[in-house]
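Morning, I've got a small favour to ask if you have a moment. I owe you a coffee for this, so here goes:
>
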Amino acid sequence: MKIKIGVIRETLQAVGKLLEEGVSANNYFKVKKLFAKMVEDAKLFEETRLNMCKKYSEKDKDGNPVMENGNFKIANIEQFNKEMQELINNEVEYEFEPIPISEAGEVKLNLYIEPLFKE
C-alpha cells in the first residue's frame, strides 16, 4: 500500500477512527501496526517540514528565523514551494494486506481509508 506523505495526517485520522470503531482482534493488530508506522513517518515529515521552513526563512541579525503572525517568513518562496511540492509527493510504502470491507463497521469510507479494505 502506498500513501503520499502529503496526506499522511488525513490518513492517520481515518485509520485512528477505524481503530476507535473496532475491528476484530486479528485485524486490530494489523491496523494498529500500520498506524504506528504511519505515526513515525508523520513525525519525520513534520521535522522535515520545520527544517525546510527554517532553511528558507528570513533571518534576523542573530541568524534566527523571522516569524510573522506565528509563521515563518519565507525568503525564497519559489524554491521553498518547489521543494515542499517534491516532499509532499513522495510516496511511502507500507506492507499491509487489506482487510474485509465488513470490518469497516460505521466508519465512513473515503479516499484516505478505502485502500485498507477489500471486497
The chain is about 50% helix and 10% strand. The chain has one domain: 2-118. The beta strands are 2-4, 67-68, 71-72, 91-93, 99-100, 117-118.
